[in-house]
Amino acid sequence: MTTADSPDTARRNIRILTLSQAVGGAAPPIVISLGGIVGQLLSPDPAFATVPVSLYNLGVAAGTLPAAFIMRRVGRRLGYIFGALIGICGGLVAATGVAASTFLIFCIGTILIGLYGAYLQSFRFAAADSVSGDMKALAISRVMIGGLAAAIIGPQVVIWTSDAVPNLPYVASFVSLSVLALLTLLLVSQLKVPRADKAAAVDLSGGRRLSEIARSPRFILAAGTGVISYALMAFIMTATPLAMVACGHTVGEATLGIQWHVLAMFGPSFFTGRLIARFGKETIAATGLVLIAACAAIALSGLGLTHFWAALILLGVGWNFGFIGATAMITDCHTAEERGKVQGLNDFLVFGSVASASFLAGALVNTENGWSLMNWLVFPAVLVVLIPLLFGRLFSASRA
Can the keyword Transmembrane helix be found in this entry's annotation (predicted)? Predict the structure, then answer.
C-alpha cells in the first residue's frame, strides 16, 4: 500500500481538497449560525433550541466510522461523491422543515448535513495521506486554509439569503447549502486516487487490532486532545448566538461573531503547520488549550459585543492549534494499513463528544447564570489534557 502520492498528484489533490473544504466547509457555519435560532422558532420548548445543532454534531459522529468504511471499500473519490449527495439531500430536507414549520423535519435535515460533515472532516486526513514525514502537518494545515474561505462563505450566505424567500425566512439559506454541496461534489469528482491505494483499501483487517491501538497511551493522549479541543469549542460556540441575542445583541451581530470565530478557526492554518514543525505537535496543541481557557476568561469578564466577539476569536485560534496539533499527533499512532480505522475511531470519539457538548450547551444556556457556568466549566476540562501534554513534552525534552 502506498503511503504517499507522487509529488504532482499530491499537490493536485491537496488543491482540490482545499477548494472542497472552502465550498463544502461553509455548511457547518450555516447550521451553527441558524440551527439554534431556527430551533428556537420551531421547537416546542426553548431548552430544545440547540437540538438541531447537536443533531448535526451527532450526525458527524455517527457518520465517521461508516464514512471510513465506505472510503476504504471504494476509495476516497467515490466516498466523497456519496457524502456530497447526502449533503445535497440534507440541505433540501432542512429547508423543507423550515418552510413547513416542522421541527422534526428540520432536525432530520441537520442530521443528514452532519453525515455529510463526516466526509468533510476527513479531508485533512486525505491530505496527510498524500505526503509523508514532516510534510503531513503542513498538508493538514494547507487544506484547513480552505476553511478560511468557508468562514466567509457560510455566514455571508446566511446574511444574503435569510429573507430571500418572502414570509419564509432561512429557507433559502439551506437551499444554498445544497447548492454548495453540489459544487463540492463536482470538485471531489476530480480527485486522482492512486490505484495501489484503491486496491489496498479493500483490506480491512490489516495491522493491529483497533482495541489494542485505542489502549495505547499515545492514542489516548492524541484523541483526548482532539476531543477536549473540539468539544469545548462546540460547547461555547453553540450557545454563543443564543447568549448574545438574550443579552440584547442582534441576530446579524451574532452571525458576524460566528464569522469572526470561523475565520479565527482557519486563518492560523497559514502558519500552524510551520509552528508544529518548529515547536512540536504537543506544544502547539497545549497552546491551543491555553487560548481556549483565555476565551472563557474573557467571556466571564463582561457581556458586551466586544467581549463576545473577542472570546469567539480566541476560541477559534485555540481550536485551530489544539485540533491541528491533535490531528498531527494521531498520524503518529498508526501505520499505513491501520490509518482508516484509526482515523475513523478518532473522529467518532471527537464528534461524539462534540454532540454531547452541544446538547449540554443547549440545556445550560437557558438556565439562570447558565452562560457563566458554561465558561467556568472550561477550566477543569482544559486541565484534564493540558497537564499530561505538558508532562509528556517535558519528559521528551529531558530524554533528548
Answer: yes
Q: DSSP letter string over 27-78?
A: HHHHHHHHHHHHHHHH-SSGGGTTHHHHHHHHHHHHHHHHHHHHHHHH-HHH
DSSP 131: S
Say if residues 291 and 250 touch (Cβ distance below 8 Å): no
Burial profile 7-22: b = 16 or more Cβ within 10 angstroms, e = fewer: eeebebbbebbbbbbb
The CATH number that domain 7-399 falls under is 1.20.1250.20
| Residue 39 near residue 52, CB atoms below 8 Å | yes
Judged by average pLDDT, the poorest of 16-25, 117-126, 339-348 is: 339-348
Amino acid letter at 22? A
Beta carbons of 181 and 88 less than 8 angstroms apart: yes
Do the beta carbons of residue 204 and residue 338 sit within 8 Å?
no
The closest of 205, 179, 203 to 90, measured between CA atoms, is 179
Element (H, E) at 390: helix 370-399
State pTM to two decimals. 0.74
State the average pLDDT over residues 63-80.
Answer: 88
In whole angstroms, give the CA distance from residue 118 to residue 252: 28
The Cα–Cα gap between 260 and 174 comes to: 21
Whether 126 contacts 76, CB under 8 Å: yes
Using alpha carbons only, what angle is made at residue 33 by residues 107 and 68, rounded to the nearest 5 degrees? Answer: 60
Structure letter (DSSP) for residue 122? T
pLDDT-derived band at 205 (thresholds 50, 70, 90) equals low
| 183 burial type by CB count under 10 A (0-12 exposed, 13-18 middle, 19+ buried) | middle
Check residue 192 and give its pLDDT: 83
Q: State the pLDDT at residue 5.
A: 60
Q: What is the rounded average pLDDT of the residues 5-21?
A: 86
Question: Hunting for cell 455548511 — which residue is that?
Answer: 27
CB atoms closer than 10 angstroms to residue 100: 14
For residue 289, give the C-alpha cell.
Answer: 488549550
